[in-house]
Amino acid sequence: ITSTVGWMLEDFTAVVSAMGCEVKDSQLTENILYIVCDRCVIVALADRVVVTANFCVALHKAIVPLMDLISAKESAVQWSSFMRKNTASPWSATTEDTLLAVEYSNLKECFPAGNSFLLGPLDAVHYFYFVYDNIDRSVASAETDLQVNVVLHNTQSSPRSVTRLGYQPTSKASDIYHRCSTNGATYEVSRLLSVDGVNSCCYESNGLVSSEKIDSLVRDFKPTSFSVMALVDINCPTPVNPKAMAFEGYQLENCASNEFAHGCTIVKTVYSLA
Questions:
Q1: Among the residues of the chain, which ranges form H helices?
Q2: How far is CA 127 from CA 33, 79, 83, 87, 203, in A?
Q3: CB 225 within 8 A of CB 133
């Protein structure tokens, strides 16, 4: 966003409600507000807001209340992205609210100048990625942002067995566990969930994520496959290249990337058991 904002838990009431979620916990540090909900986590920094959610959440419904909130803070959106991982064809969905066409229509209504991309094979693991870029680069400083998402599929460690790794239950009767940590303006969010008996782990950070970090997640959770998505600005001091990473016991299944006009690159890789 265009200006520095101070956030409070109450600011996000409409955002949480729009997604049909319920606040379970919150944590405010000097630089970051974490809001842990039953099916999503909101990370609010001074100059940006990140919402990461389970696949069954209609994430696009959070956009309008988020824009209203930012406007109420006398700020404006200068860059926004929306990303959803799909494991089937884009016209298959859990509910009508998560159909790609519905998401695309809502995003274009809010950001008419935004562009959409499909990264990966149409009938297997791919990402729908929508980006709106309104940064005034004639006055903007060097762009150094980094964001990495890792999704581990069909993990062998159940959510209830990982409290030793520092994960906390999102609620007492929940099969969803989470772990949030911060270092200055750098955040890490991990979520563990079980759907229909299938366990998954989702990890996200805006800091340096090495192959060793991803390898530790793989060794802890032993997935049958996992995907890595990295958004790297052209001036990022510690660039991440998932295509150059290798993991013992796993093979690279596919890779897709897109380089934007100003130099930002997004790379998606999928690994499966060798």
A1: 13-18, 63-72, 100-110, 211-221
A2: 27, 19, 7, 9, 16
A3: no
CA–CA dist 109, 106 (Å, integer)? 5
Going by pLDDT thresholds of 50, 70 and 90, the confidence category of residue 247 is very high
Beta carbons within 8 Å of 262's beta carbon, 6+ residues apart: 133, 135, 137, 143, 234
Task: Determine the distance from the C-alpha atom of residue 99 to the mean position of all C-alpha atoms in its chain, rounded to a whole number.
Answer: 18
Note the pTM of the prediction, 2 decimals: 0.87
Least confident of 19-23, 95-99, 225-229: 95-99
Q: Nearest 5 degrees, angle CA 218-CA 128-CA 112?
A: 145
**Whether the Cβ atoms of residue 146 and residue 238 lie closer than 8 Å to each other:** yes
Task: Please report how the helices 63-72 and 100-110 are oriented relative to each other, as an axis angle in degrees rounded to 10.
Answer: 20
What's the confidence (pLDDT) of residue 152? 93
**SS3 state of residue 211:** helix
Residue 258 and residue 85: Cα distance in Å, rounded? Answer: 16
**What per-residue confidence (pLDDT) applies to 109?**
92
Four-point Cα dihedral 200, 206, 212, 217, nearest 10: -10
> CA torsion sign, 272 to 92 to 50 to 17?
negative
